[in-house]
């Protein structure tokens, strides 16, 4: 009965949450020893589907067939026992335990006295890590690892259980390009070992490198597959995802620049424990009104730290000078930065950008509450009007300004964070990875917002690790590598080769 | 769906009503004006403390020192009122009016709370530890100040605060109403209140929005101290005596009221009125169990289960919080 090449099949899967149908009769085949890539916009139901396949959601309609046999996982552990492992977007490791302890968590090897057999566990871990080209001691604490390395630990954990199906949810969203290369090599070798991969990602370019087949998911429904990746084009893929042709990627309109809004001179930020090493080293640049300055660099190049330093998060240890509109200023705190007309849309909107349980309107007025205070009291009407203005202007999709921020999609959450800063009437806006994890359409909308801000005379600083993005939206691009500036290009000079060369310099 | 949401929203009030009805049926002494005022007077101290505790918990902190701060503030007020500052060696004597003594008590409470906030923000001492230390420090200071003996005989003027009536309502209840009213307005309608919720909801986002986290938190702990002092003065006045061991384990009753009232210990969600309802539930339950001659041992067990039930209901209504 069972078809040899299909290891896992989902039949007619429907999953409803209160009031919302997340998945609607989805059929899906996972081919053995292949990289099966699921593509779809945010909210298409990809993550929900993955959670059903891996036992996180035990309640659903429809059937799962593993090698032709119906299975129903009560929890992720059962799924894992049957050989299905998931590597979540957010890594689930315990920071203050060693790699070995994390990998063996819940299935420790003990000797006949019930005492943990560290020697054996470390040996097994070392073998697993070697298989993953990872030369780290198994005794290293997870908290000391970079994100890319932590991901390898997650994979090692799955391999320990002899996973036959490995589900990876956006595995490259937080790791450097060199780590991505390693990851792809590992995926390749796993394939050779007949491990089947189910892969989700938003990064279209990398999908063509890694994918064997594409599965399109849209609004909770399966919309088709592309079995022959080599003959497919990017447009085919985008059509599969969004069901319509997207006109060429956004390109920044060029504008005339005005006066200098921000100049930094010799900004350095030493490491906390080792003052001779630097997170940011001797960075200088200028932004003028109406200009979008892009900062490109691989993870760990010091881009986020640079923004933080200028934004007043490290006032005691930083050195260098900051000039706003030509005048030297001392930024001693975030408060100072905001008073001086700066705003920062942080990299992690859930952790640092939003107060998730709070209503949208409160998030929007957060950094400029004074403008909605009348006679010492918050004025509900002024405040809701402020929120409505930005909901309209930025086209935030929400049932009401009263909605909790946590109920919005990633793109709309990002627009709320943007609104918060726009409400402060800033002169300079820092955007750290503004489109991370949001879908193609929302990305384009964010680009247009950035463009409009520049047109209105703001100086905008955008950090991004996506090359096409940084090239599309910036007037000028600074490249950082190992804490310092290694290249600077105008939009017309810039190309992928030059930027990449500077980024790995 | 709407009925369910309404039920959830008013679950504390419903629980309170059900409790009152049951107790009214079981005891004919429960539903009397005297008993009503009694309950109100008894919970007034807890409500004052719990208002401060609510602010602290909304910022994702905890204040274990309120019972000790209550004792020290009450003792300082009582001591100054009775003895003044008398230093014969320096030929110095300062007498205190009732007003001056009360103000000094509030000042002590605010000062200790400020110290808590300073430790927590400046030295990053976890609030649990900082206020645990203050619990011991303030208790020890109370013992030192009183020499281990109650300070009694504080005069009629001072006694009026705890035992007097005004417009047919006991003074402690008036004070509590004023405290609650101000706290409701502050939390709902002012910048400070908004910031408290923001810090509790996501401190990192609040900091990156340019909020002065240190200042807000220090004020929150200072207010918790002042409100503990208010409770201390009411209690001292009602008993006409500052007891060195007053307020022991009051922090637990206070946390119970806050939690029963639906404020989340992980911060950012809750309300002053919820806490008032929580304190009322505890007060009514205490009074009812006494009237029904339930043994004090059983009373404690029942109270414990009420706290658990309240939190379980809260978990069911907010399943996605940590």
Write a concise keyword list for the protein shown above.
heterodimer; A: 505 residues; alpha/beta; Rossmann fold; six-stranded mixed beta sheet; B: 322 residues; mainly alpha; two-stranded antiparallel sheet; two-stranded antiparallel ribbon
What is the total tally of β strands of chain B? 6
Largest sheet, strands/sense/barrel of chain B: 2 strands, antiparallel
Which CATH architecture of the largest domain in chain A would you pick?
A: 3-Layer(aba) Sandwich
- Apparent shape of chain A: globular
Return the average pLDDT of chain A rounded to an integer: 87
SSE string of chain B? HHHHEEHHEHEEHHHHEHHH
Explain the overall architecture:
The complex is a heterodimer of chains A (505) and B (322). A six-stranded mixed β-sheet of chain A has the order 6-7-8-3-9-10, with helices on both faces. A six-stranded mixed β-sheet of chain A has the order 16-19-20-13-21-22, sandwiched between helices. In chain A, strands 2-1-4-5 form a four-stranded antiparallel β-sheet, covered by helices on one side. With 505 residues, chain A is α/β, with parallel strands linked by helices. Chain A has 17 helices and 22 strands. In chain A, strand 17 and strand 18 (377-378) form a beta hairpin. Chain A is globular and about 70 Å long. In chain A, helix 4 (118-131) crosses helix 5 (147-160). Chain B has 14 helices and six strands. The longest helix of chain B is centred in the last third of the chain and has 27 residues, at 213-239. Chain B is mainly alpha-helical and 322 residues long. Chain B is globular, with a radius of gyration of 20 Å. At the A-B interface, helix 10, helix 11 and strand 18 of A face helix 8, helix 9 and helix 10 of B.
